[in-house]
Amino acid sequence: MKLGMRYAMMLRVAFILTILLFCPTAKAQDPTCGLLNDPAIHVAPHYAQPSEAHYDGSQLSPPASIGGTYVDPVYGCTIKRLTNGPVEWNSPAIHEYSNMSAINSNDTLIEIGTNSGWAILDPSGNVIVPVGNVPYTTGRWDITQPNVVYYLSGSGLEKGTVNTSGCAPNCMITQTTLHAFSEYSSMSFGGGEGDLFSPDHILLYGVRASDSTQDIFVYTISTDTQGPVFNFPADTQFDNAEITGSNQMVVNWGHDQSPLGTCSSGPCFTGFELFGAACNGVGCSPANASYVRHLSDTHSHSVESRDTNGNDVVVAFDAYPRTPGCASQGDGGIVTIRVSDGTITCILAGTPWASTVHVGTSRFLTGTNWIVLSTEDSSDPIGNGTDSTSYPLNPNWYLPTTANNTPSAAGQWGHLSNDTYVMNLDGSKLYRVYQSRSRPGASDYWKASRACMSRDGRYIVFDSDYGIGQNTPVNDYVDVYIVNVGVVRPAPPTLLQVISVH
């Protein structure tokens, strides 16, 4: 009897172990704050200054202290202040851009910039590496090593190791040269907007010292290997080049094909185009950097991501051929472009197109990625230099849009106007998470919030002047804020092993 009971117990343990070992990876968690698939127009409360039209009796101010928080009154996410630029540096404070992560791989360090240089903070705004101790102006975090950052010094690729042990707020960065590219007179990370996607590869851009022609290529970190280059003429302009999860190169040429539909054989040096052979895994190097395909006749703000089926995609605000009904004003809507075959899919229609719009992404090679999109109105509907984010506000800034979600003199605030929202890559889930309340108007670029996302999708970093003033308390005032939207990717079940059964 006892032997039978013991045997039954062993069977039950084996059954439980089988479930744990073969159960699929847990599904990524959705954001834990924000409004899901909400179609309403939400005009920001307490938005106008006392001197502006339709002041409602108070103005929402940011937290007074670094590390202070408040809850967005419309969408319910908690916003934390990371910087007080005028007090700390007598300067605005910014993060770099939407399509590169300001946050390191384990969400413990954040890069921010000032007029005097860059600094590294923790997620509560405490200075870890001060201005003056950061030896670069453009750094890219390593994907797996949280204290490692890559940067360029002249034509040399450098590895920086951030020392964080007992040294804050005066920590240092140890510099190691990975590769000296002596053939180039200048270099950048893909024109200034590239970031790492897979753990061992960086897309680099260089201007040849010999003839001023331009190269893009993939560098493999672990083997110190410069991959094959795509070379293009010195007078060919481009906006940026970004790397995909499979280490191919997508170039945004910064201008459209004219007329649309006439790129019959590439490269046409217009819209988005794909270059280089796919290469997967640590230590690999692409077999070539040749032209692969023309992805779109039009260009726009964009970011490279990967969908749940493992397809590398470009997320963009416009593409051609256009999807009927995807957006008003003849534009292409928010779309994904699958790089393997150029398939364009509309994931969000009817965006407020008279806006400054930016896009960022989490960066998982498998599973669920999220994108973050941020918009600020720049429409100037009556031609007097005002809109719903200018100084002063347009007189009708608070009125809802009346046609096709497009700002006009009759109505300025539309669905998603001046919003930041998190969306999955098929467009089925859109979480509106906060209103940035920044005022870039039609031309003040650094006041655009340019929201970026941490690699795990948990955090969003953005900039805002909170309507305090165009040049108050310092010229082009803006500060940096962070939002925890709660996206997490649970680890798979732990591998259990039975040593003995008693």
Task: Summarize this structure as a short list of keywords or feature phrases.
mainly beta, five-stranded antiparallel β-sheet, 502 residues
Give the secondary structure arrangement, pairings included.
Blueprint: H1 2-22, E1 35-36, E2 69-71, E3 78-81, H2 85-89, E4 93-94, E5 110-114, E6 117-121, E7 127-129, E8 139-141, E9 148-153, E10 156-162, E11 173-180, E12 184-188, E13 201-208, E14 214-220, E15 225-232, E16 240-243, E17 249-252, E18 272-275, E19 291-296, E20 302-306, E21 312-316, E22 334-338, E23 344-348, E24 355-361, E25 370-377, E26 419-424, E27 430-435, E28 452-453, E29 459-464, E30 479-484
Describe the structure.
The chain is mostly beta strands and 502 residues long. It is built from 2 helices and 30 strands. It has helices at 2-22, 85-89, and strands at residues 35-36, 69-71, 78-81, 93-94, 110-114, 117-121, 127-129, 139-141, 148-153, 156-162, 173-180, 184-188, 201-208, 214-220, 225-232, 240-243, 249-252, 272-275, 291-296, 302-306, 312-316, 334-338, 344-348, 355-361, 370-377, 419-424, 430-435, 452-453, 459-464, 479-484. A 5-stranded antiparallel beta sheet has the order 1-27-26-25-24, with no helix packed on it. The model is unreliable at 1-27 and 491-502 (pLDDT under 50).
What ranges have pLDDT less than 50 throughout 5 or more consecutive residues?
1-27, 491-502
What profile does the largest beta sheet have? 5 strands, antiparallel
Tell me the structural class: mainly beta
Helix amount, in percent? under 10%
First-residue to last-residue Cα separation: 15 Å
**pLDDT averaged over residues:** 89
